[in-house]
Structure formats: structure tokens, C-alpha cells
Write a structure and sequence with these properties.
This protein is of the alpha/beta class. The longest helix has 13 residues. Helix content is 21%, strand content 29%. Helix 1 packs parallel to helix 3 and helix 5 runs parallel beside helix 6. The chain binds acetamide.
Length: 265
């Protein structure tokens, strides 16, 4: 099956939900794809100075404005969309992403491994690592940014049957894009890392995001890699069925050859 997958890289405006939604609407208005992945916290920006600030740009789903925009877009463009946002659930805030499908179904993931100052504002995710059906039933695993540091995350998604790992990100350390090559090839899955660009300064903090959003094949091939600063929507065609084949040599299978009795996890 030929399946179009896309990554969107751009620079959200800090604490300006309205401007970010208008920008997303413009950037995605003409998208022709089956699945598109947007960055982590793409509706709010990243460098929060307080919990109150974080809360001011958070929303619950399915009643929040970002969810409304994304689900309308998924329906109009007939594609699945994965996007990162600040989620409010009662008194708790989560660094979440959602998969929204053209048939109106949606699936939520709350970031498992919080990075640095995120721990001041967000609760650790409690959804676990989830695999959900995207358009045409393709199995998609969701993880967010710093989850890359823990190989157990991608491995869990692959063992649960993910064909494509969707990875909304706001990367600031220099290693993830290279590390994801190994995550893809050791698990024989496609991966889509959607990173943001730009620099944010707030509350004495200053962070520069590394761009270089990428789409990787099941052998770690770089199918698409953007540069550090461009705003771009990039698309390529893949066959998701390739991720079902875990064979490495005629006598080796990346999953069947595992020896979990010798692993400490
Ligand atoms: C990160 O997890 N946003 C670095």
C-alpha cells in the first residue's frame, strides 16, 4: 500500500494560542497526505515561566479550540493528524499529543518522560505507550520528544505492533535525530519526528530548538530531513507493511531472536 506521510516544522508563538491556531490553519490548508505529524506543544509554545501560564494555554479534549480546528482539518483534508498540546484534565496538566482521524475518532497520549522544567508544570503521563489506528487502519505509536531517550518507549510501541512511530518534539539537546535512526532500525519501524524551530526566552530561561524534523524508514534510512530553521511541510510515500517484516538475515529476526530472559528492564 502506498501511504503518504508528512511532517510539519514551524515556530509557534509563545502563549499565543489564537495566533498558533491561525498559523496551523494556513500551513495545513492545502495538505495532501494520509498522515501528518506536528510538533510537541505546537499550539502554545514551550518555555513557560509558571504553572499559571501553562494553564492559560491548556485545553481539554474533545471540547478545546485546538482539537476543534485539528478535527475539522482531518475531516476536510481526509488525513490523520498527530499534534502536541498542553492538556488540562481537572486540576492536572499534561504534555500530551493526540491522533485525530478523518472519521472523527481520536486517541490521546500523555508524555511519559518529562524533560527538565516540564516537571514544574506538568504531571507525568498516565496513559502508557499506546498504539492506535490511523487512516486506513495503519497502526501508529505515539511518543513525545524526550521519550526518545528511553529505548523502552519505542520498543514497547513496536512490540505492540506500531508500524509508524509519531514523535511530536521540541528538541533542544543535539542527539535525538541521530538516536531515532537506531530506534527505527532496531525496531524496524518508520518514525516521524516533528520538531519546532526558533528560540524562546521567558522567566530567565532561554532555549533554542534544533529543527531537523525527519521521516525515517524501517532500516533507519533518512527519507526526509529538514534544516535547523526552515518552516516547511514535507511529504513522502511509504509502504507501512514494510514495518511488519522484522527479518534481518535469513536466520535473524529482530523480534523473534530477542532473549528477554536475559534482559533487565
Ligand atoms: C523535550 O522533551 N521537549 C526536550
Amino acid at each position: 500500500m502506498s501511504y503518504r506521510v508528512s511532517v510539519l516544522q514551524f515556530e509557534p508563538r509563545l502563549l499565543d494560542l489564537k495566533a498558533n491556531l491561525a498559523r496551523l490553519e494556513r500551513l495545513l490548508r492545502d495538505v495532501e497526505t494520509d498522515l501528518v505529524v506536528l510538533p510537541e506543544l505546537c499550539t502554545s509554545g514551550y518555555v513557560f515561566a509558571s504553572r499559571e501560564e501553562t494553564e492559560s494555554v491548556s485545553e481539554s479534549i474533545p471540547d478545546g479550540p485546538a482539537f476543534g480546528l485539528i478535527s475539522a482539518l482531518a475531516w476536510e483534508r481526509k488525513c490523520s493528524v498527530v499534534y502536541g498540546f498542553a492538556e488540562r484534565d481537572g486540576s492536572r496538566l499534561y504534555n500530551s499529543c493526540a491522533l485525530v482521524n478523518p472519521d472523527g475518532s481520536h486517541h490521546l497520549y500523555r508524555k511519559t518522560h518529562l524533560f527538565n522544567r516540564e516537571k514544574l508544570f506538568f504531571s507525568s503521563g498516565n496513559t502508557g505507550l499506546k498504539v492506535s489506528p490511523a487512516k486506513d487502519g495503519v497502526k501508529v505509536g505515539l511518543m513525545v520528544c524526550f521519550d526518545w531517550q528511553f529505548p523502552e518507549a519505542a520498543r514497547t510501541l513496536a512490540l505492540k505492533g506500531a508500524q509508524i512511530i509519531c514523535h511530536p518534539s521540541n528538541l533542544v539537546l543535539p542527539w535525538c535525530q541521530q538516536a531515532m535512526i537506531t530506534r527505527s532500525l532496531e525496531n524496524r519501524v518508520f518514525s516521524i519526528t516533528a520538531n519546532r524551530t526558533g528560540t524562546e526566552t521567558n522567566g530567565g530561561e532561554n532555549l533554542t530548538f534544533t529543527g531537523q524534523s525527519q521521516i525515517l524508514g524501517t532500516k533507519g534510512e533518512i527519507l526526509i530531513r529538514l534544516n535547523e530553521s526552515e518552516t516547511k511541510l514535507a511529504t513522502c510515500e511509504i509502504d507501512p507493511a514494510e514495518a511488519l517484516d522484522k527479518s534481518v538475515t535469513p536466520r535473524n529476526d529482530a523480534f523473534a531472536d530477542r532473549r528477554p530472559e536475559f534482559y533487565e528492564l
